[in-house]
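dude i think i finally got it to work??
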Amino acid sequence: MSHIFTGVGVALTTPFTNEDVDYEAFENHIEFLIENGVKSIIINGTTAENPTLTSEERNELLEVGIKKINGRVPVIAGTGTNNTQASIEASIKAKELGVDAIMLITPYYNKTSQRGLIAHFTTIANEVELPVVLYNVPSRTNMTIEIDTVLKLSEHPYIVALKDATGDLEYAKALKEQLPSDFALYSGNDDNMLDYYKLGGEGLISVVANAVPFETQQLFDEVSNNQLENAEKLNHNMLTLLDALSVDVNPVPIKLLTSELGFGHYEVRLPLVTLEENEQKVLSEAFNTFKDGVKQ
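look at this
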């Protein structure tokens, strides 16, 4: 089986205008991303504020998104929760709507053992029969998918990739050395994309690409083409922008930038709150500086 995608996938934000999902802005954002070369779009992930969306909103976002994308890039739906049966139901609905793959986060709050992880993920994969991207993000779930567990899960015919948001390059390196070549490793951390590509990662599931898709994909392409000097320079500029984006939890900062690009108002849903005015100013200036720099 070939990889779902190679390069940059975007963990898509959900635009709001006057507290409602702005589907027109959502479609315009998708078009912007595809025109700028992204290789996959992930709908209803953490960056989409998935926990605050109703099931009706999540399904409509998938339906609208799939129609807009129209097969141009693969669509991955974030359907994982800490409830196995609910994850199955959401995944089956996503399959009915026409997604190419699903992404499953490790259970949180009622977190389980490694044996429980295997049972949870394989039960969903067996029921849904779609390619599965595992999502390892211990900073949000307080648990990790251990290396031996990933290796065991990789034996399943539908479990084909990992979004690795551990930030641990030694973990990624060990996996790369032991996993079969048809299992894809995607970084889930924008700030380590260059190093992740160098160790053989197949791509990135990105937050910053919501605002700078062309440059994020360009960095991947430069590493692939062994243009490492160019990649290092672009990565240096990207890290400055990422530092500014770290002012608050994702997706609070990135949604300021997507709103400035015209994709919805600057709104998030509680319990998230928007940046203070002075923080917005600093981030906007960093964004403009980055854009000016890459034009030179």
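The domain at 7-229 is CATH 3.20.20.70 (TIM Barrel).
im so relieved honestly
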